[in-house]
Sequence to fold (255 residues):
Amino acid sequence: MATRKPGEALSIAETSTHEVVIACGGDGTVHEVVNGLMRGGRKASLGVIPVGSGDDFAKMLGPGDFVEKILNGKRRSFDVGKITSRDETRYFANGMDIGFGAHGARNVTLVPRFLTGFGAYLAALVLTLVRYPLLEVRIRIDDGPERALTTVMAAVMNGTTFGGSFRVCPEARADDGELDLLLVDALGRLEILALVPKILRGAHAGDPRLELRRARKVTIESAQPLLVEADGEIAFTGARRLEIGLLPGALAVLA
Fold:
């Protein structure tokens, strides 16, 4: 069934009575289908045929023919991230972030249509460098102490990659019962540009300007409204408090 408007894949997945729901599209389609399955309490398995520009979720399924993966019927249990802001909940399959990545996700929609794939993400990166926020937030990781943080980006990941090629959390696994975090200091434009090649290679661990952590839950608070990206989609535009948790093994995936 071809969708015709945003949110339609979510509705189809939420009300489906089938044993398997296949998302044929990019990360935005997967995001909608996963949100539909979680909201509907469905136990249907997810199949993915990646035909998007980034397809970050599909990278977690490993190499090979994706149609064959579906036909083989082998299921893996993936964790699902959960974001709550006020009374609204969104789920993510791959990852979420605030700051530079979220503004980059919004700026992708401003890139000329003749640019696709990695080229579109690079163009969005350039647009974001023109104007990006330095966020003053308070963050609590698991049951640790709350601390103040000035950051250009904070990402909470279930997968390794966002933006098609940026390996923000290269050690992340979708089935380990933990979320992976990347916290980035308040950096200037030249520092960000110098850091990009490292993140593309997944070689940024140990950089003193970054912090990589693992957690089961994260709370982020801000006096200023936050733009929040999840799986490449804008999930919230004015959040001031985010409670981010994990549903271990909640999603059956044909992989």
Summary: Helices lie at 8-15, 27-40, 66-72, 100-108, 117-130, 189-201. The first strand starts at residue 20 and ends at 25. Residues 8-78 form a domain with the Rossmann fold fold (CATH 3.40.50.10330).
